[in-house]
Write a structure and sequence with these properties.
This protein is 74% helix and 0% strand. With 145 residues, the protein is mostly helical. It has one domain (9-137). Helix 2 (52-76) packs antiparallel against helix 3, helix 2 (52-76) crosses helix 5 and helix 4 runs antiparallel to helix 5. InterPro entries: DUF6069, TAT_signal. Keywords: Membrane, Transmembrane, Transmembrane helix.
Amino acid sequence: MASVNVQHPVAVGRRRFVVLAAAAVVAVVLNYLVAFGAVALGADESFRPLTAPVFMPFTLIGLAAGFAGWTAVVRRSARPAAVLRVLVPVVLVLSMIPDLLLLATKFIPDTSGTAVAGLMVMHVVVTAVGVPAYRLARPENVRAM
């Protein structure tokens, strides 16, 4: 007789929470290190987007938005792995457009190439931490990635 692996919804929800909370902590710590590195490489310390009160909420919002998008694709697509394989890099590149506009217009004081590069690396960090976490938190039909 074949066994069926059915997990209790509370256990699945708890696991999902733990995985996403751990991803949030890792992403915030790594983005702190990116901000520190950008300042060490010449970004102005007073450039607000590289300060924790600014980048921490944006890191968490990025992770949450990514998980919402991931969940929508997994639930609605017949081939979520194929969709996500294209969608994730496209969204990552599109997420950098505001950073490039910032570099071009310098609408935030103390903007520099190093500061904007730091912001762009933060986008990569959120993606690099988020994707494995999303796969663990919502693994249905995406194991082929």
